[in-house]
Specification:
By secondary structure, this protein is mostly beta strands. 8% of the residues lie in helices and 44% in strands. Strands 11, 13, 14, 16, 17 and 18 form a six-stranded mixed beta sheet that branches. It has a five-stranded mixed beta sheet with strand order 2-9-8-4-6, with no helix packed on it. Strands 20-27-26-22-23 form a five-stranded mixed beta sheet. Strand 24 (281-282) and strand 25 form a beta hairpin.
């Protein structure tokens, strides 16, 4: 059997056996003897697999991983038994002792960790502590200098590096911010130390480093470093994101991301969902762009990284791109008869982009063999025999005529005429001049389906008439011969201004109803109200939710919401000249909840009513 197959078989059996033990083995018991040693001294290490009753689990046959914190398994500063892993066997009764095998070459107090090989699944772990002393006395004093940050510096990074150097090699070094311990590290063999500060408040702070010995006695201190933390105003750097032509596209479409920023931004990187980070191109003083090909259906979040002097401003979920499946489908097909010309006008609707349509029709539903191709969703068909029933269907096709999607339902086109002419059936056939579906005369079409002479001034608009106002006078829009007259239009009224720049939105509550209101706009016909759940940068991003003729609008409020909720509103005035002008600015409006206020108000009203009843 090839070695690869043997290796695969070995690990498969080992994995299966490990799964069997997961239900029983709870943890490892880890023992070191002695638990306090000097640098380079070897100790005994014993490991037991323990079940949920505290007994040795004799069915455990998986492998245990042995590790000392601070060090990786390949470190020269620690020697681990059995190449850092061991498989439990029945031969040693499921308790293994590595005699005088573990040693650590740096002084400190460490945790020895033992994990199951498949710890991500089994969660079987164990640990113990060992203290390692130096064989010689550490110097009682040394030097410790902070090289970064410098005193009185102003810092803005989210993670601030603290870099120092000490004459005390491999010593614990503790970092204090404003006299509070925030981190600790060992100096390396060159005496270098690097730690990071994060999560502090903007304003003035102090920094101090102390090196300590094994008894936590301070053996070296840095000078106190004052500094100011002033983080970058991230939202001031990012102005807005446009997705062109739209953030709703179809598979295979290209979109262009246009990022507008403050002028101090050096570069912009785009992260789309789980794609690799993508750099943008600077196409203007404040403009960065990136073209993307959206190949697969889905909803993609857009994250932005703005770089300023080496620091990053991260903006998660700046927008989303929705990519729909490129479905080509003819949805509906309808027809309208053109009786006098023996024609029918067919129209259809479709989904997504269809460039070519193939319409097929014939008198036999199962053999529609006449066809035509169109690039528009309509066509007029001349029927050679208008007395027969026909069937039609439309297919989406490519430029070569091959079908590329789902066709419309088959439509039945009823006969335009009866085989033998019949008056009053609303079909104009052979010898008929008209057919108004009734046997009455004096209505433009006689009982014999002949056109009747129109009579002016009878207040009926009949064939040949454009109007009929029941009089013989001219000059009153309808002439004496029943033709529309053109009247001279009055002079146009002077255009008046419709200014909105100074008008702001306000809110008020009246009897538990919530209203937006604003000052009336001169020469405005009505107002359009827009809303968005997050802060918009342009009214074009917002959804139109209402229209009002008065400068007031009731907006929805949810008093039962679990937390405070807000929405942004904007209003456009529709001027008399049909132009649209936005009022002063967007208004952030609280839309829920206000249970406490409502309960207090309701209580006051009920108490007042109770007092009146008892008065």
């Amino acid at each position: 059997m090839p070695m690869k197959k043997l290796f695969f078989l070995y690990w498969s059996i080992l994995l299966l056996l490990s799964w069997i033990t997961f239900a029983e083995t709870v943890s490892f018991e880890v023992i070191v003897e002695p638990d306090t040693i000097t640098v380079g001294e070897f100790v005994d290490l014993t490991i037991k697999a323990i079940d949920d009753k505290g007994n040795v689990d004799e069915s455990y046959v998986s492998e245990a991983i042995i590790k000392v914190d601070w060090f990786d398994v390949m470190s020269d500063d620690v020697e681990l038994p059995s190449l850092w892993y061991y498989q439990f066997k029945a031969a040693n009764l499921w308790v293994v002792t590595f005699s005088k095998w573990l040693t650590i070459k740096k002084a400190w107090t460490y945790e020895i960790l033992v994990n199951d090989l498949f710890s991500d699944v089994s969660n079987i772990t164990g640990k113990t502590t060992i203290k390692v002393n130096e064989e010689w006395s550490w110097p009682t004093m040394g030097t410790l200098d902070v090289t970064s940050p410098s005193p009185d510096s102003e810092l803005s990074d989210e993670k601030i590096p603290v870099i120092a150097n000490t004459t005390l090699l491999n010593h614990p070094v503790i970092l204090y911010i404003d006299d509070l311990k925030v981190d600790e590290r060992l100096s390396d063999q060159n005496g270098d130390v690097t730690m990071y500060i994060s999560g502090i408040t903007p304003w003035k702070h102090t920094l101090l480093l102390n090196a300590v010995d094994l008894g936590w006695t301070v053996v070296a201190s840095s000078e106190v470093i004052p500094f100011t933390y002033q983080p970058i105003d991230h939202w001031a750097l990012f102005v807005w994101l446009e997705i062109l032509p739209s953030n709703t596209v179809v598979e295979g479409d290209k979109v262009t991301l246009k990022v507008t920023t403050a002028d101090v931004v050096d570069s912009v990187t785009v992260k789309i969902w789980d794609w690799d980070a993508l750099p943008t191109s600077k196409t203007g003083k404040w403009i960065f762009t990136k073209e993307l090909l959206m190949e697969a259906e889905g909803i993609y979040s857009v994250d932005l990284w703005l770089s300023v002097n080496g620091s990053e401003s991260i903006h998660k979920d700046a927008d989303t791109i929705t990519v729909s499946k490129d479905v080509k489908k003819v949805v509906t097909l309808t027809y309208e008869p053109i009786l006098q010309q023996d024609k029918v006008w067919l129209t259809w609707t479709y989904e997504w982009r269809v460039e070519y349509f193939k319409m097929m029709y014939w008198v036999d539903k199962s053999k529609m063999n006449l066809s035509l191709t169109s690039t528009i969703p309509s066509w007029t068909v001349l029927l050679s025999d208008p007395t027969k029933t026909r069937y039609a269907q439309v297919f989406p096709v490519d430029k070569d005529g091959d079908i590329v999607g789902d066709p419309s339902p088959i439509v039945t086109i009823n006969p335009l005429r009866d085989p033998a002419p019949v008056c009053w059936n609303k079909l104009i056939e052979l010898w008929e001049e008209c057919d108004d579906w009734n046997s009455r005369g004096s209505d433009g079409c006689s009982a014999q389906c002949k056109i009747e002479t129109p009579v002016c001034w009878n207040r009926k608009i009949e064939l040949g008439e454009e109007c009929d106002d029941w009089n013989i006078f001219d000059g009153d829009w309808c002439s004496s011969i029943c033709k529309i007259q053109e009247l001279q239009a009055p002079p146009a009224a002077p255009v008046q201004e419709c200014e909105t720049w100074w008008i702001v939105l306000q809110t008020k509550v009246v009897w538990w109803k919530y209203y937006l209101y604003w000052a009336p706009v001169n020469n405005a016909k009505n107002y359009l109200v827009y809303r968005q759940e997050s802060r918009p940068w342009s009214i074009s991003q917002m959804s139109l939710i209402g229209e009002t003729n008065d400068p007031i609008f009731e907006y929805p409020f949810d008093p039962n919401a679990a937390v405070d909720q807000f929405a942004w509103y904007a209003v456009e005035a529709v001027c008399n000249d049909n132009s649209k002008k936005q009022l002063w600015d967007f208004e952030k409006v609280k839309v829920g909840p206000e249970q406490t206020l409502l309960i207090i108000l309701l209580s006051v009203l009920l108490l007042r009513g109770f007092r009146k009843m008892n008065a």
